[in-house]
## 1
Amino acid sequence: MNKCKSLYNKFRNPNLQYRYSHVFLIYIFLFVFIVVMSIANEYFRDANNFRNIMDSSFPLMMAAFGQMIVILTGGIDLSIGGMITLANCLSVTIMTQMEGVGGALFAILATIVACSLCGAINGLFITKGRLPAIIVTIATEIIFNGIALFLMPAPGGAVNKEFAKFIGARYLGLPVSFFIMIILVILVRILTNRMPYGRALRAVGGNESAAYSTGISVWKVKFKAYVLAGFFCAIGGIYLSARMYSADPQIGTTYSMNSITASVVGGTLMTGAIGDVLGTVVGVFIIFIIYNVLNLLGVSSYYQYIAQGIILIFALIISSFESRHR
Amino acid sequence: MPECILKMEHITKEFSGIKALDDVSLECEKGQVNVLAGENGAGKSTILKILSGIYQPDGGTITLRGEKVCFKTPLSAQHAGIAMVFQELTLINQLTIAENIFLGQEQKKNGLIDKLEQKQRLLSCMDEYGICMDPDTIVDRLSVAEKQLVEILKILIRDPEIIILDEPTSSLAKSEVKILFDIIRKLKATGKAIIFISHRMEEMFEIGDKFTVFKDGRFICLCDRSEIDTNILISLMVGRTLQNIFPPRLEGKHDVPVFEVKGLKFAHNGKPIDFCIRRGEILGIAGLQGHGQTELLNALSGLQHIYSGDIYINGKKSVIKNCRQAVANGVALIPCDRKQEGLLLQQSIRFNTALASMKDRKKLGCFIDKRAEKTMIEEYRTKLNIKMANAEQEVRELSGGNQQKVVLGKELAIKPKVLLFNEPTRGIDVEAKREFYYIMHDLAQQGVAIIMCSNDLMEVIGMSSRVLVMYEKNVTAILDGELINEEDIMRCAMGLDIRKGRCDI
């Protein structure tokens, strides 16, 4: 009884509401949505369908983590799609050239290094070059896509069997991607909410000059955020390689925009400083469940784009409504 | 003899050719409060920003504990034991009190932030200094005074040796000032060196042990508490001679007021303000920075909400709720920051000058009449003596003085009855200033009501027929005639002696 009361009091706390009201809302929305759809549609409530959603949402989950970290600093990364494509094509190219488990491991490592470098390039232009993030990342997106096309002009290639099998396997009835996701969510949550770096991230996004005069190295914080975005894109791209057994130089086109949508739906403010990875996770799921439902209902893919736009506008309306009432 | 811990000598600093600091010195001793005094723009904030590593000096040396040092970043100054409470708050609104206070130096356990430990340390620190706040409150929800206390806690937890307080009391009420002064006395007792800036005389003398006086970026003197009193300090802070760049002073001759304000309330808790401008008069507004001058002008020009009060222009009651209505009633504002609020820098002179009065020159009812714009610009070019290549030149290529003339031209084009100047001559050279003063003089003679707000006291004294002095968002006095001098204005601006002018308000 006492515990209930303390929990209730905790929820009533305006400071917690300030930070988590959106995340809380979004969880309720997801829950209600799943329940309603499960009752309405028998294909939807099938366990395989949920595994399918889990599987297909993993790459976007990674992209959204990276995007959220960048948005927390008050920036934006539109080269996420390019980096995912590059990760996909690069890892498959290496695995096609070098066979065996060793080759696969090398491919993973090389891809992670390459994408982190791509992020570092973004970060350097934005921090040391003092260029606007939106322009820099639009430009590098084109470059990364170009490199990917150079590596792999048409879809194809081969992927190490053992590696693909490991990623595609299930434990306790759950796909491996689920476990990787859980681990990464915990790590990102610790990074952004429990470590000094996360504080610095929000400080820079909240008030850059204040962060500077407090003694925070603003450029390093931003630079690391873009490198992290590159790192998460590498994970997403490698995962795509394993699930498709091949590479596709067009694969990443939708990821930049979708990762922004997912972050915003999940409660990240585009102005920076506020956002939680627990919200972003749900943001990604909401996008994919809506796609999934539209697919199950046999709605044409054109409408899916329209739906995506409407979701984004809706999420923005909610967040502006909230900030007005603070 | 207290131990001298810090010495700054022969410091110079230039901002785009203008000397903000010219060979100044500052020192502080353990267990002493050094009060840094000077008018607005004397260079107090600049030297403190150099000390805390935000600006780099162009010349001079900083000696800390006998060693020569140089602070490249705020971080290196912090490591050296120097902490500053800034005039403009530097808190991150989205974070909690505890998160802000420990920002950049979190208590760590296994690489993670130890929230519990932080909270306990903070609570014990607050206990020690008698402050009561919930560490988990989001800073956004705090009042300005509470934020100021958080700012001070932020440096207390860092336990620095030298503490700089740049106008910490400007937003505090009496009771909160008392808490702050108790904190300062405790810090003094533990041997910290403190540099304190305030614009309130009684506070300076309550807490200060030593006084360093700056004026116009130059060092005037360093003296002991015992050698100085309010009058000496004021005369040290002012005491310049009038330069001969001002036109003869205008006296309002007619009894008919052109502009009248009755019972105006622009701040939530401010007192109602009454004043009037007679024909051919320039009303100066003086006061220390942030005492409501800009808000008053913004309220009159529709930029800021008016709580109550009436405005009469040429005897006619006028409603000004937004800028549109202000323009319609003939009220024009020359804003204090022309680059931010006054001009579109990348656009041409023609574009900028024509902007406010576009609707008066339509061709065929809806098109922009380029030719009419050109003739208009030629008119203002000769009238205001704007030095430009041609009307299509980009405004950002012009000098500060000519930019300001373009702003004035833009506002004159709406044929204003009332012109509000906020810092009309900030960042422009002396010759342009002189021209500007004569333009204002002529406009006033033509019957335009002119209000001029400036932080430059000389300008206010040189230009105004009467001077309205503000202190803490209220009008303390309207001075005229003999009373328009530096000492009397400073006195009123510091809330010391409220004496009403001889004229009817």
## 2
Amino acid sequence: MTTHGRLGAALLTVLLTFPLTMCGAAAPAEKAPPATPAGAPAPPAEAGPAQSAYPQGGYPAQPGYAAPPPSAATGAPDQGDLAQRRAAARAELQRAQSDLEAAATDCAAACRALSSMERATQHLCTLVADPDDQKRCDDAQHRLASARERVRSSCGSCP
Amino acid sequence: MKTWLGLLLVLSLAFGDIACRNEGATTAGCPSSEPSGTPVDTTIMAFLSAARALHHEADLREKSGDPAGAIAALERLVAMPAPAVAEVDEVLADTHARLAELRLARGDLDGADREVQGGLQRVAGPTYFRGHLLEVQGLIEEARATAYVDAGKREEATAAKARAISLLEEAVRVQEQVIDRALADGGRE
């Protein structure tokens, strides 16, 4: 996969993962039954830990209610899996960004070197006075053409 | 010249701005507010800032038709105490190359050659800066050959021309290696 491809894939993964996580967080708030009978205030000491234990959603075990089904049965990934996927996506995104930045830097260096190579070859060939000089000029021009093609294929045009 | 001035900017940002922001709400690591911060970074930042300013001054003087003023500005830079790091060596090598070109344009071939030698001491291996210095040295020998021809010194002219061709060939090879290395990771994707 190309750098751009990796960057795109990582971005897509992140974009897909974050909304999924947000949905997972919102769903229990709507569906979770009250922990206490209607009208009875929930003890603060219990509400706090329940929220912190499920910061991104989930179904806290409640007395009198069935335990939530395993995530595999519903098709929804569990929180640990989501966190791992998010972390992996972030890492992939960072790698892709680094690759992209490195590629831009490498192309700038290659273009700069190519310019110097062009100037040197031009001067070398103006000094040709005999067949041996001509051979050296031809060799430099061949190297220049190869380098130019290599830079073009890897970086496109130089500024 | 703009390319490495860009490098200076990037380095300044890298050493300065990011270092400061990474400390969160504190200003630890910021050279202006934390005297006990990393001294190497502060020195490098100061040097690069001075280099940027002096090259800018040289640009202005060149544009206003004052090459002697441009040379003077760059001489102040190469005379500064320089931190021993690769980035600074590259800046100085490029400064020597620019000085060599300015002296060459004024016909000071020996002075230009001294600048090239000074620059080559700063960089080793296949780097753009070394290749550029070799390229400039080739131009110096080319100019020397022309001067010898004008003076009727054919043997000296032939020898200078041979040196010019060899140096320019070497410059081509060095820059070819620089390109190969720069694009070597193109196949990793």
